[in-house]
Specification:
By secondary structure, this protein is α+β, with helices and mostly antiparallel strands. The protein has helices spanning about 1-10, 25-35, 35-45, 65-70, 80-85, 140-150, 155-170, 175-185, 190-200; strands at about 25, 50, 55, 75-80, 95-100, 110-115, 125-130, 135-140. The strands form three sheets. Strands 1-3-2 form a three-stranded antiparallel sheet. Strands 4-5-6 form a three-stranded mixed sheet. Helix 2 packs across helix 3 and helix 8 packs antiparallel against helix 9 (about 190-200).
Length: about 200
Amino acid sequence: MKMIAITLMQKKEKKCTEVCKMLLSFNEAVKEYGNQYQLSQALAQQKVYKIEEGIYSTDQYVSEVVTVMKKYPKAVLTGEYAFYFYGLTDIVPEIYDIATPSKSARLKDARIRQIYVREDIFPLGIEERNVAGGIIRIYDKERMLIELLRNKNAMPYDLYKEILLHYRQIITELQLWRIQEYAAVFPKSKMISKALDEEVM
């Protein structure tokens, strides 16, 4: 199981490119400008901007989702925001669903809903995307299909059907072998596989 998780993550994760250097944590900003005094000078001269506590940017305006994911770099976007990001629903979520390993500390942030995920399945399907000048970690479409099926009863029915319809329309674009590998290692794998056959394929 661990071998599958590591292999899939290595296949999907991409290295951060130059575009994400504009967004900096406090420690990165201090390192970039030399020390805290020089950072304060750079702020005064508007060479860099403080976006929120602990987050700095060379641009004055930064996408909120990029800021949130910079603040919680080990978390992964999932849930309704991931479906929206992939164009599988038109409904704009009010908060960001982010997954963290099950033993992670609680994140106190009104913008997010923290979802604790079992350690062995947490890495499955993580990929990195360049978005609006920053980098975000998000589960791939194949992993999100599994999440859709296993969380069916926790979602509004109309939203579930909308997303499911979009998945049916793009099923030939997905990596079916990856979906099958994900399904095999998740809890209630037989139920997930049955739902895949009956509702998606």
